[in-house]
Amino acid sequence: MQLSEFKKILKKPWFKQVGNAHPLFIQSGALSGFLLERELGYSGFYFWHKDGQAEMNYLESDLERIWRAIFKKCAQNASWLKKQRSLYTKKFNEFSYEIKNQEKIDYKRLSDSLLLRIFKKAVWVQCFSVGLGHYCEAIGTRVARALEKELIKSNHIKIENDISQRLLSPVNESFISKEERELHKINQLSKEARVVALRRHWRKYFWINNSYLGQGRADMSFFLKRLKAMKKDELRTVLSRKVVKNIKLTKKAKIIVAISEITHIWQDLRKANILKAIGLLDKITHEVAQRMDIPFSEIVNLTPLEILSLKNVFDIKKYARLLKERSGGAYYFLTNLNSEIVVSGKKAKSLQAFDEELNKVLNISSVNGQTAQPGYAKGRAVICKYIFEMKKVRQGDILVTAMTRPEFMPIIKKAAAIVTDEGGITSHAAIISRELKTPCVIGTKIATKVFKDGDLVEVNANKGVVKKL
Fold it and tell me: Residues 417, 458: one domain?
């Protein structure tokens, strides 16, 4: 393809997910979007990365089509979405042996042929950790807007920004909150009982520090350190849904609320499964990198389809030059399971320059988004899109980010408010901000481009408005 054709692709309306990720880890999950029914799957996506910084892009038109198809199926069959979630869980649980025993297997002792077979299997485990859970993206980005429209139409009044948020708020706690609550209970035990319980806790949550960059450190010393730092009366408040009075819910509105309730649980389950699967893929990828004598930072630039097509593990060596080139920045375009194009080198740099110009934001001082957690805050803005930027955040700062992930928890707890470019009502930022009761505005699209480090900003999350003072 010519450069001009790639530029046409970049001009399309995309939903961006920005963060830290290695191509292999995040693309293996995205791959499952092409295994779904035609009306519920993707027609294409592209991924960009450079030095661990990444951007996954889904077509807005795909998300809209998938949302409409999901709503139609739920309107016809109230239990359809729950059944889909059960199918997702059943499929992922087929890999429970590999997930539970990943800490016990000595990958160095595996033969080359067996290592390749397990490498491919780990790609599929990562793929199905997302699987049918792809529906969560479409639902999360559309559900609040759909409910607001329905409420306005049926009640003939102006709906305040946080009303739909209250109707769509989850009452179930996230796995992050659950793990913290269980650790808090351990802290109440006697010294002898605490040691036994902590070991059991470690075996249950050994994956909790994983991310799209691979396995994070979560050994016994990690949990012990947190336990020692935890105050005995410190415990996060359990979520409760506020009652919304004088709002009439139509049949359509009730379906939307029901979809949201199912998706909140599913989204959290999916996040946990993704982190578990990454640990397995990370371990095997490290062993493959060592045997191939290719740096891990380069071998993670392989695509899932390249791995699945291998006949011999040593065939990876033929990609060595390309993998090194991709480390300098690359675009990965996928339209189906048989059509994959990777652009790297000078062409990728040219595309990146075009992409940056395309998404340049003019000089404005405020942004609007969706209320995730009501409230008001004023403070110093800190732009934090990637893990290496977390050290900038101080207590009481306004955290401005593309989107949050579990690895952002230390700085989220410091923030007086959270503002994101992307994300819907089921996003990580939305769920955690409600648990912490931290004012949060999501889906502003451009907050990280409008504000700069050190700007004094006001967050009025009641109205979904963030402005520079």
Answer: yes
For residue 200, give its domain range: 175-229
Residue 186: which residues within 8 A CB-CB, separation 6 or more?
Answer: 194, 197, 198, 201, 227
Burial code (b: 16+ CB inside 10 Å, e: under 16) for 47-81 equals bbbeebbbbbbbbeebbebbbebbbebbeeeeebb
**Is residue 45 in some structural domain?**
yes
- Tokens describing residue 11: 């001009």
d(CA 226, CA 423): 29
Most confident option among 68-77, 100-109, 243-252, 385-394 = 68-77
Last-in-domain residue among 305, 331, 358: 358
pLDDT tens digits, residue range 269-312?
Answer: 999 999 999 999 999 999 999 999 999 999 999 999 999 999 99
* Same domain assignment for residues 371 and 464: yes
Q: Which helix (H) or strand (E) holds 372?
A: strand 370-373
**Contact by Cβ (8 Å): 64, 40:** no
Are β-strands 456-460 and 465-468 bridged in parallel, bridged antiparallel, or unpaired? antiparallel
